[in-house]
Design a protein that fits this description.
By secondary structure, the protein is an alpha+beta fold. Helices cover about 35% and strands about 30% of the residues.
Amino acid sequence: MLVPGDEPALDAFFAAHPHTTLFFQNNLRKGGLVDRGAFYQASYAAAFEAGAISALANHCWNGNVLLEAPRHLEAVARAAVRASGRAVSGILGPRAQVIAARVALGLETASPYLDSIEDLFALELDQLRVPALLARGEWLCRRPHDRELAMLIAWRHDYRHLHLHEQPGEALVAKCREEIQRHHDEHAHFVLERGGEAVAYAAYNAALPSCVQIGGVWTPPPLRSQGYARAAVAGALLAARERGVPRSVLFTEGDNHPAKAAYRALGYQRVGDYGMAMFGGGEAR
């Protein structure tokens, strides 16, 4: 198990796996290596070879297991879950590793409400192609106003229900309220405004000085196919680039062809795959 003082070894591992470790890096930066169950905290397990980390797993405060373990996956996944004592509510990482971790954790026969195959994309922000209407100032990407948070909670609810297959209702509304408020407090989300109206949304689900990971992209169904989501993402990326952030990653469903076309239009290139297996209230300990 990793403890404070192991950060340099983690930094070297992250540098070797820059596209698949953004959740790890974001959580470590905000929560540290001591796990008390608070937001962003996790129990971290690693395998070492020749003094360097060769595999990493953690079990997060929210029950999710994160993976970047091309070797020793079974050992690190089990160690992280054992150390946390929490139930497993999800597994995220490179797709093949998610499948292997389900077996290692005894979840191969469990029925996830989401079992996704995602395409992983990366972009150097100096190569960002900005949509013309955003570049000309006819559309505006900005941080949300306080008065818009109720609308964004409703949008987040619909996003989680339609894209992540979560059960709609009051429990999901409460979850989304916490997420939107946290994004708001951390200045980590954006709306696209057209003619004084907010028409699309994008957020950072991980934000570091070296990279931002885009997530939660949403346009209400009646407003789709007009380029709003692409412009919202571009605006979030421009804000990061202005702070000196050089790179971005994101992932999206492999069969979501409109989203992939939008991201490629911004300059993103596919660099691999990702996977998510999400379970109900926790399926294993």
